[in-house]
Amino acid sequence: MQMPLWVQQIREDMDAALSRDPAARNRVEVFLTYPGLHALIAYRAAHALDARGIRLPARLISHFARMLTGIEIHPSARIGHGLFIDHGMGVVIGETAVIGDRCHLLQGVTLGGTSTRREKRHPTLHDDVLVGAGAKIIGAVTVGSGARIGAGSVVVQSVPPGATVVGVPGHIIAYAHHGNETVERLPDPEWDRMEALENRIAELEARLAAATREIDVPRPRA
Ligand SMILES: CC(C)(COP(=O)(O)OP(=O)(O)OC[C@H]1O[C@@H](n2cnc3c(N)ncnc32)[C@H](O)[C@@H]1OP(=O)(O)O)[C@@H](O)C(=O)NCCC(=O)NCCS
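Above: query sequence and coenzyme A SMILES. Below: predicted holo structure tokens.
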């Protein structure tokens, strides 16, 4: 007999915690003690109501889940299979946010909006995205499959698939090719400027040293 969809989704969410958290021991423990899972179960119920136009009860479920878990997920957000919200406290997922399959969010992550208009104003995360603790992704930007956002980063521009982004504002430090394990560094505009300045200082020092040598050379007496 086939499992109801909601049971299947809860199992996938539990398995996501088991496969990604080395501290997780079994499904019973995950089911009873993981606030990320509790928030997702409440979200999936709220989302089903929201999709049928039953909006206030949906908001209430999401509000109580937030009180219980510290994780705020708007019922209209769209979340795929196997999301793992690790620790969870302080996570905010906005109304028009979209999250693909098998994503991993740590505590304090914000998928927030920048516009006050009723439009797509929150991020879209494709499949297998990792967002580190405290990272903020704001605006209707897209984070490509397999991208990793470092803890504490602030991302305001779209991120290509497989990229690793760190810093404020976020910049790409590495890129993992799909289909193989090679990782290469991408140009980093801040680093490029620092390197150019270092080269320029080295060149000026060399010219200064040459000029000083010229002045110091004793001139033959006439
Ligand atoms: C971004 C991340 C995925 C990169 O992991 P990684 O590929 O193993 O990268 P490394 O640790 O080798 O770091 C690569 C470079 O990025 C820097 N870096 C890594 N994470 C960073 C961050 N969050 N902010 C700023 N710089 C960071 C490192 O210092 C290193 O710099 P260097 O090359 O000049 O030495 C990881 O660092 C991260 O932030 N993961 C989230 C973890 C988290 O939130 N844990 C909380 C658990 S409760």
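The chain has five helices and 16 strands.
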